[in-house]
Amino acid sequence: MRSFEHVNASDIQTAIALLREPHTEAIAGGTDLLGELKARLRSPKRLVNIKTLSELHEIGYSPQMGLRIGALVTLAQIEQHPAIRERFSLLAQAASSAATPQLRNMGTVGGNLCQKPRCWYYRNKLFHCWLKGGEKCFAEDGENKYHAILGADRCHAVHPSDLAPALMALDATIRVVGPDLDGEISLAELYTKPTESHRQMTILGPGELITEIRVPTPQQNSRGSLSQGDGAPVLVLCTRERGRAA
Amino acid sequence: MASQIWSGNGMPPAYALVKINPDGTATVITGTQDIGTGTRTVLAQIAAEELGFALEKISVELGDTQTGPYAPLSAGSMTVASVGPAVRLAAHEARQQLLDVAAQVLEVPRESLTIADGLLHSSALPKPVAVHEVLKNLENFMIIGRGARAPNPEDVTVNTFGAQFAEVLVDTETGEVKVERIVAVHDSGRVINPLTLSSQIEGGIIQGLGYALFEQRVLDRDTGIVVNDNLENYKVPTALDVPEIVFEMVDRPDPKANNLGAKGVGEPPIIPTAAAIANAVANALGVRIYELPITRERVLKALGKV
Question: What are phi and psi of B147, to 5 degrees?
């Protein structure tokens, strides 16, 4: 790991201003970022600690408003929250299926949705793959059992979030705040296929942060189930009137 | 079900010292290690029994081959069967020295003396005398016994034996294999400590479980670079994967093996686990899988589903 400067953000606007600077990354739980720093996949000069933003640590629920989860809420808090367990059990299941208890105690929902792929070529510093700025995707003709076949273009990595499929199935939206931006989009709109000029899996640009996840109250008669195979999660959400799978 | 034969006989060279201290305690000194396998406990037991001292009076100094005597590493199912006999001989020699000096100090016939629980007994004494009562007036007199592991027998091959039985559930839709229960029966000679022995058996079975179902090195086909060189993608069993383990000890001393009749138990339980699981999977599916680990993909291929 290379050395870096660590600064605490006093409020959201300060965090955004700091994150617009080059070679700067946000750190919350750090469970994904530290792995990348140790493997030297990225070497930012400055980390902006956003855990200090106290207003992003809250969970709120009412039947009318639905569920609101601050971006800094940990996966363990989601897993254990009584209203989420009762009314959004699919989300609680997804949170509890992620990683290990230690990582769930540290990892935040915002970080989980924005994490980098676990593709073993991406994570291995011996492979300078396309997503890291290189020329080719090594998974295309390589060891690609856990990679995307359909819809993949220059990069075959799959997004590893356990929470994203559950939240999408529950019609979640996210609030995104940035230098010239404060708006709500559906979670599905967050994700994008990486392109030549934007080698990222989300549409977020410099200084843009997810601040909140909003989930409408599901219908009383809907039930969800999640099962984890060797690779990506398989998830089914059904209502009595209509069935859908995500 | 699968069975196992493995040496586990131990061998020379292995040396040990046993020092009897003026306060009635004793110290075992030998160069081997305890990497969590229970060597320290077992060597203390051997010395305590041979000396006639209580277990808590024995301390064990391991790991120093610079000033202490040489003994082998903690590996190869050989630690106890190599070092244990040397410790027993060293304790025996120390005991002889103690009896020599006690006979002189107490002025009783040497052959009348015995030692039990740190007390010297003799029909010539009005009541038993504690070892430290004899030693405390001898100032800097030292009792140090030395022991060296004797050669292995030339006329027999020393082996350990075992059998394991596996009960598995196979999901024919997903290919997932879940091991429900392993029953293990192992003969490694005399059992010196049932708890450290059963821990070794359980640990070995869990390693064998990883071999059977999870552990797989993935090489990039073009470069040969290992792409799963981490514990995220190279899976080893964790607590939630461990099945019910039923273990039956065969406590049968092997008098030809060494002066303890004890043999190694580190590797033997790893040997049959994967084969027992593979046989149980074949029994469940009616088709046999010839490669390890038995992944979901291989199960589904064997069933003709992919």
Answer: -140, 140
CA distance A160 to A232: 7
Q: Which helix (H) or strand (E) holds A210?
A: strand A209-215
Q: Which helix (H) or strand (E) holds B92?
A: helix B79-106
Exposed/middle/buried for residue A245 (C-beta within 10 Å: 0-12, 13-18, 19+): exposed
B216 in contact with A, Cβ within 8 Å: no
Q: How far is A120 from chain B (nearest CA, A)?
A: 6
Residue A192 CB coordination number (10 Å): 12
Which active-site residues of B does the annotation give?
267
Q: Check CB contact under 8 Å for A143 and B218.
A: yes
Strand ranges of the sheet holding B129-130, from the earlier edge strand across to the other edge: B114-116, B119-121, B129-130
Q: What is the pLDDT of residues B67-119, one digit of tens each?
A: 889 999 999 999 999 999 999 999 999 999 999 999 999 999 999 999 999 99
Contacts with A145 from chain B: Cβ below 8 Å: 297
Which residue in chain B has the smallest CA separation from A227?
A: B174
- How far A221 CA lies from chain B's nearest CA (Å)? 28
Half-sphere exposure of A158 (CA within 13 A, CB side): 15
A120 — contact with chain B (CB < 8 Å)?
A: yes
Q: Are B144 and B101 in contact (CB under 8 A)?
A: no
Query: What single DSSP character describes residue A194?
Result: -
Distance of CA A150 to the CA centre of its chain: 21
Task: Confirm if B180 and B167 have CB atoms less than 8 A apart.
Answer: yes
- pLDDT, position B140: 87
Q: Supply the ipTM of this predicted assembly.
A: 0.83
Strand A46-49 and strand A5-8: the pairing is parallel
Percent of residues in chain A assigned helix, strand, coil, to nearest 5: 25, 25, 50
